[in-house]
Design a protein that fits this description.
It is a single chain. By secondary structure, the chain is mainly β. It has three domains: 100 residues, Immunoglobulin-like (Sandwich), CATH 2.60.40.10; 98 residues, Immunoglobulins (Immunoglobulin-like), CATH 2.60.40.10; 96 residues, Immunoglobulins (Immunoglobulin-like), CATH 2.60.40.10. The chain is 10% helix and 48% strand. The protein is built from two helices and 25 strands. The strands form six sheets. Strands 2-9-8-4-6 form a five-stranded mixed β-sheet, with no helix packed on it. A hairpin with a 6-residue loop joins β8 and β9. 19% of the residues are buried.
Length: 347
């Protein structure tokens, strides 16, 4: 009888301990997390990817991305970051109540280059499931009439002006055949001719230089009238830079003050810009004791000239010293590089 009471008491004690342990255990965490998620905001876009199809060059593309708060708390859109400078965001809806919608206006400024494009926009919000949403705008940029390139550039020397030409291609992307007028040019140093490659669709404008050029830099505009209402005028910028046939680097041979302990050996580099190959020869310095050596780096185009001045070489005041070479070119037949010696600093 006593054992039965003791066993019963022991069983009650154990049962009471288990009840206490069960009552002390916290509520399961996943259930709490699920409750918090259910009460949070949720952002959903009707169309996260917008395909604008085809757009003209330099024309803006605008689109409003519509989103809905399908959650149970206030949705806050804190930031909108386009991926490049050509895409901008307008004033967007910053706070959206549950069940309500908002917009993010985006404008893409099409560049002057045809082709396929794809731009991204990063949207930051307080949705715990997706704090960052990536939107995309894509499509094809096209020009009713393509002009490639839009300019004609000439880098010429005095003996290459006459034969210098540059070509510009004009391609019609419209269904209606294109016609072009005769070129109008505002500078007599340029001439242009339109050649038809494919009637109504493709043309070539051949631009030619007309010597003599007035100054080192010459500019002009070639204008063509078209039958297209989308591009009634085509302007082709033309420029010509008259560069010397031969260039020395450095342009002046500079010597340290006299006297010097050792020989002074300056080196100059001579580049040929003319269409004809040069043949440098007969180097002469109009001073005693100076040795000159020519070395071709690229035959007819590039050479080095090494001069050796003795330690006691002195350039007397008012004395004009220079290096002279024969070039083998019609223009210039000779090439000269001046020599300058730094004055001695008085103690």
């Amino acid at each position: 009888m006593k054992l039965t009471k003791i066993g019963l008491a022991f069983g009650v004690l154990i049962a009471g301990t288990e009840t206490a342990v069960l009552q002390a255990q916290p509520a399961p965490q996943p259930a709490a997390a699920s409750t918090n998620a259910a009460l949070s905001p949720k952002i959903e876009f009707a169309t996260p990817i917008y395909d604008f199809g085809k757009a003209k060059i330099s024309g803006p593309v605008k689109h409003d991305y519509v989103f809905t708060n399908t959650g149970q708390a206030m949705l806050e859109v804190t930031a909108v970051h386009p991926g490049c400078g050509c895409t901008t965001a307008g004033t967007w809806t910053r706070q959206v109540e549950p069940g309500k919608t908002g917009i993010i206006p985006i404008q893409y400024n099409a560049p002057a280059i045809p082709g396929s494009v794809a731009k991204v926009i990063n949207v930051t919000c307080n949705d715990p499931r997706q704090p960052t949403v990536v939107l995309q705008i894509k499509g094809t940029i096209w020009s009713p009439i393509e002009v490639v390139p839009t300019y004609a550039v000439f880098n010429v020397t005095s003996d290459s002006v006459t034969n210098a030409t540059s070509s510009v291609r004009i391609l019609n992307n419209e269904e209606t055949p294109l016609t072009l007028s005769a070129p109008e040019i505002n500078n007599p140093n340029f001439a242009a001719e339109v050649k038809t490659k494919q009637p109504g669709k493709e043309f070539e404008v051949v631009v030619r230089l007309v010597p003599p050029l007035n100054g080192e830099n010459t500019q002009g505009v070639i204008t063509l009238k078209t039958s297209s209402t989308n591009m009634p005028l085509i302007n082709i910028n033309a420029s010509a830079r008259l560069q010397p046939a031969l260039v020395a680097n450095p342009p002046v041979i500079t010597l340290p003050p006299a006297p010097n302990t050792n020989n002074v050996r300056p080196v100059i580099y001579i580049r040929n810009n003319s269409p004809s190959a040069f043949a440098l020869s007969d180097p002469v310095v109009n001073a005693k004791g100076v040795d000159v050596q020519i070395k071709e780096i690229e035959p007819g185009r590039y050479a080095t000239v090494t001069l050796t001045f003795p330690p006691d070489f002195t350039n007397a005041p008012g004395e004009r010293i220079q290096l002279s070479l024969k070039t083998g070119l019609a223009q210039p037949p000779t090439f000269e590089v001046p020599v300058f010696q730094l004055p001695r600093v008085k103690q």
